[in-house]
Amino acid sequence: MALFFELGGSAGNKVPPMVKTNGSERDKPIVVQTGHNPFNPRYIAYAKDHNKTPEEMMAYDREVWAGGCMCGFILWMSKKHREFWQVCPSAFLDRHTISDQDAWTEFLQSVPLKRTKESK
């Protein structure tokens, strides 16, 4: 569930105390997530691609990548970035910049499903 707040509006717009703002962000809407999975959907896809829950993946990566537990995730994202360029170059502004973030996330989330189906 996401709650939307408009900053700098009328007194009826309540900004929760944990939200920090500065002058440049006054007119931008912000999203405060409540009751959600604390893991990024892309990290969840990474964990599923390794047949683990996000918690299991984090524990595994802390052992394997001591001193840099996000290294495995970063390497996986780089590999998937190259694969995504091959299948959907229209989602990129240039070779390195993804412009369609929704398509990128959908691609990452579909990879574990394909891998599971292929392995059966």
Biggest sheet, open or closed, and with what strands and sense?
2 strands, antiparallel
Number of structurally distinct domains: 2
Number of helices: 4
Which geometry do the CA atoms define? globular
- In terms of per-residue confidence, which ranges show pLDDT below 50 for 5 or more consecutive residues? 1-21
Structural class: alpha+beta
N-end to C-end Cα span: 35 Å
Strand content: 5-15%
* Helicity range: 40-55%
Mean pLDDT: 76
* Secondary-structure element series: EEHHHEEH
Task: List how many beta strands DSSP finds.
Answer: 4
Strand order of the largest sheet: 1-2
Gyration radius, to the nearest Å? 18 Å
List descriptors.
120 residues; alpha+beta; 4 helices; 4 strands; globular; disordered N terminus
Folded structure, characterized:
This protein is an alpha+beta fold and 120 residues long. It folds into 2 domains: 2-33, no CATH class; 41-119, no CATH class. The chain is built from 4 helices and 4 strands, in the order ββαααββα. The protein has helices at residues 41-49, 54-64, 71-87, 101-119; strands at 2-6, 29-33, 92-94, 97-98. A two-stranded antiparallel sheet has the order 1-2. The chain has a two-stranded antiparallel ribbon with strand order 3-4. Strand 3 (92-94) and strand 4 form a beta hairpin.
Element layout with pairings:
Layout (H helix, E strand, L loop, with lengths): L1 E5 L22 E5 L7 H9 L4 H11 L6 H17 L4 E3 L2 E2 L2 H19 L1
Antiparallel strand pairs: 1-2, 3-4
Helix pairs in contact: 1-2, 1-4
